[in-house]
Amino acid sequence: MNIVILAAGMGKRMHSALPKVLHPLAGKPLLSHVIDTARTLSPTRLVVVVGHGGEAVREAVGAPDVQFALQAQQLGTGHALAQALPLLDANVPTLVLYGDVPLTRASTLRRLVDTAGAAGEKTGYGILTVTLDDPTGYGRIVRDAAGQVERIVEQKDASVEQRQIAEINTGIVVTPTAPLAGWLAALKNDNAQGEYYLTDVVQAAIAAGHPAVTAQPDAAWETLGVNSKQQLAELERVHQRNVAEALLVAGVTLADPARLDVRGSLNCGRDVFIDVNCVFEGEVTLADNVSVGPNCVIRSASIGAGTRVDAYTHIENAAVGANAVLGPYARLRPGAKLADGVHVGNFVEVKNANIGVGSKANHLSYVGDADVGAGVNIGAGTITCNYDGANKHRTIIEDNVFVGSDTQLVAPVRVGRGVTIAAGTTVWKDVPEATLALNEKTQIAKTGYVRPVKKKN
Ligand code: UD1
Ligand code: CA
Q1: Which class in CATH covers the domain with range 2-223?
Q2: Quick one: which ligand is closest to 172's CA?
Q3: Over the chain, what HEC string results?
Q4: Is 168 touching ligand 1 by the criterion CB < 6 Å?
């Protein structure tokens, strides 16, 4: 089938410079959600109709399998679809989606397409409909006495009786493509909004012997669109609830499914526990028995089996081995690679650094641009001085080094295996293995010293 995504509307009610369809839901533009769902149906052609902010939209979602059609003026949904016609394959049906309706499931779309395909001798014109308690604002599905769809009437054109109809047009339709050009060309805009309504094609299809048929989504939220920030926030919650539900079904323990945000994909092993208020972004993998404490942010990272991530830990573009302990208040920045059994504690920042098996940096340290071996103990307040004001340099700490508290390692520098560094040392040249490194300092105990006292006015 062809798939056309209508995305030319301007989204005035978003009150934003960003085109409506580029507003993010779960960290991804609304339109990208629709495109991703469309892709799962393997369309022969995938066309996005753009108008307002068209260039920005192309830039944001452009891909080899996506074609764009420009609707310079927003003259209605029928006019919008007409702009895509030259790009379509006339031999297969065309599914029409909206760029601001992000959560429709592929299974629902497939059902609609199948229903239309099985409608009769001629392919049907399929309409995805739902029945709402409050149908105000939507196009209504008008049926005859036998229950057959006759037409769709827009809210603004509907009679008082028609406004009582609770079954509405979600806007998602599937239509035969070959006759579509003729039907669209025949549309008139003599209606309440002065627009070329796609909904008026229904009558043309029926007249040409293509029965109008309907299908329904599994859930009404699948067809909800975004016209305002309120609706965007509502759909974000719907989506997050669905994600949490899927994690629970897969066996993940969530302290509170309502206090979890996944903006990307979160892959969990068995017996994973996630406490409240965690945010996961990009591709995140938590292996078996990982537990994540409250208020953690984890972006594009993999965490090995049995690792404990304690509260307020922040991880980005990092890989952590098994049985590690991170936080509370640890920060792993891009390029942090931690082997099994590593401990990185409170207020420790690790960037572009490898830390070997079983090594520990438990308190208040910065480990950047470094290669730390196995079994290393990094004392509190240790700093790798990686930046000389112009360039970054590496610090190499070999296996079984003991770094005393408050050590500065001025890179580039290498500390040989088994070295002990005394507390408060500035290491500014390489240290041969198995030695003790210290700076000569004296401690003086001065007698007769008088501490200043605060003057009284
Ligand atoms: C449309 C339907 C209505 C349905 C409702 C569901 C028509 C005439 N009406 O109404 O029956 O109940 O959706 O939400 O089709 N768009 C363009 N170019 C245009 C006009 C619209 O690309 O010239 C796009 C919009 O960006 C949006 C979609 O089409 O994604 C729907 O447009 P909108 O103006 O929201 O249609 P409604 O009047 O709500
Ligand atoms: Ca709308």
Answers
A1: alpha beta
A2: 1
A3: CEEEEEECCCCHHHCCCCCHHHCEECCEEHHHHHHHHHHCCCCCEEEEEEECEHHHHHHHHCCCCCEEEECCCCCCHHHHHHHHHHHCCCCCCEEEEECCCCCCCHHHHHHHHHHHHCCCCCCCEEEEEEECCCCCCCCEEEECCCCCEEEEECHHHCCCCHHHCCEEEEEEEEECCCCHHHHHHCCCCCCCCCCCCHHHHHHHHHHCCCCEEEECCCCHHHHCCCCCHHHHHHHHHHHHHHHHHHHHHCCCEECCCCCEEEEEEEEECCCCEECCCEEEEEEEEECCCCEECCCCEEEEEEECCCCEECCCCEEEEEEECCCCEECCCCEECCCEEECCCCEEEECCEEEEEEECCCCEEEECCEEEEEEECCCCEECCCCEEECECCCCECCEEECCCCEECCCCEEECCEEECCCCEECCCCEECCCECCCCEECCCCCCCCCCCCCCCCCCCC
A4: yes
